[in-house]
Design brief:
The protein has 312 residues and is α/β, with parallel strands linked by helices. It has helices at residues 45-59, 64-68, 87-101, 164-173, 175-178, 196-207, 262-272; strands at residues 31-32, 71-79, 85-86, 106-115, 118-128, 138-149, 155-160, 187-192, 210-216, 222-229, 232-239, 254-258, 281-283, 288-294, 300-306. The model is unreliable at 1-42 (pLDDT under 50).
């Protein structure tokens, strides 16, 4: 059974995140993985949403002990290959390390859903690295947690993952400079595809997205995959009989979006598309540089960057 509650879709956040103590955890995605032995969450769907909302507020509260309160007495949180924080004191210290580094830290709940006997909770974290030794650069992280619950309805064990190289780069250069495809405005794209997995992986790796939802019709007539992050939400639809390219003489022709660095975006595309004739062109009348490219199934996409009076 899947329960999905989405807020702010497409995702929009204006806060920023920076952290000196956290420079060893860097990245765009935080994953909390469940233990091998799961217990069924002793809370209903409505209570799960409420639990996740209160957990979100705790991370934004600058009260580290309130985060630890969501874990069982022997609950643990491990980030990457580091030592696990076990028990209230250690969990409080871990949460405090984030809050000290990110005094304006804000966590936003993007969605929460039940998965088997556990739950998946999707979030976006923003803040400013204004703590001791901070760099003053913006960091923006989206990710999710997979929760294993105790018999009492609290988090029993979590294992976290962060992209340390990406996080470090954002600290040093800023969030816009860190992402090759730093999209500067919210975008939603819906595309019918033949191969949901292969095309989904291409969108994930090209635009730095994470999977937030997946739906299969009861009769198997269609599958939907939703990817989100970096100011873009992509909905991929595979129909049961779509082995051949869908015939769409009218409808979606091309999807465009503005990016922070057209040259970095172009390098990313030419590195991930096997063969492309994508070239950056200049439109002096509109004051933009742009290029057109295609996803693996031939759908047209176009990236733009405003260049004002200097469109070289």
């Amino acid at each position: 059974m899947y329960l999905t509650i989405r807020k702010g879709w497409p995702m929009k956040t204006d806060e920023h995140l920076r952290s000196h103590p956290l420079r060893s955890f860097s990245g765009v995605t935080l994953l909390l993985l469940t233990a091998c032995t799961l217990q069924r969450a002793p809370i209903g769907d409505a209570a799960l949403v409420d639990f996740a909302a209160r957990y979100t507020a705790a991370w934004s509260s600058q009260d580290a002990a309130s985060v630890a309160a969501f874990f069982a007495d022997d609950g643990s949180l491990q980030i990457n290959d580091g030592d696990a924080a076990v028990g209230g004191e250690a969990l409080t210290a871990l949460a405090q390390s984030f809050m000290t580094a990110l005094p304006d830290m804000v966590l936003t709940m993007d969605s929460v859903r039940r998965v088997g006997m556990g739950a998946e909770y999707f979030w976006t974290l923003d803040g400013t690295n204004a703590g001791p030794g901070g760099t003053g650069n913006a960091v923006h992280i989206s990710g999710y947690e997979e929760w294993t619950f105790s018999g009492g309805g609290l988090i029993e064990r979590s294992l976290g993952h962060m992209d340390t190289a990406e996080y470090q780069r954002q600290l040093e250069e800023g969030v816009g400079a860190a992402l090759p495809f730093a999209i500067t405005g919210a975008v939603f794209v819906a595309v019918q595809v033949r191969d949901l997995e292969a095309t989904g992986e291409w969108y994930r790796s090209t635009f730095d997205l994470v999977e937030v939802s997946r739906l299969t019709a009861d009769d198997g007539s269609y599958e939907i995959l939703i990817l989100d992050g970096n100011n873009i939400t992509v909905e991929l639809l595979r129909l049961r009989d779509s082995a051949e390219p869908p015939v769409t003489p009218f409808g979606l022709f091309k999807v465009g979006f503005h990016v922070a660095d057209i040259d970095a975006a172009h390098r990313r595309v030419t590195a991930t598309v096997a063969s492309t004739d994508a070239e950056i062109v200049v439109d002096e009348a509109l004051g933009v540089r742009s290029f057109v490219f295609r996803d693996p199934e031939g759908n047209r996409l176009q990236a733009f960057q405003e260049c004002g009076g200097d469109c070289r």
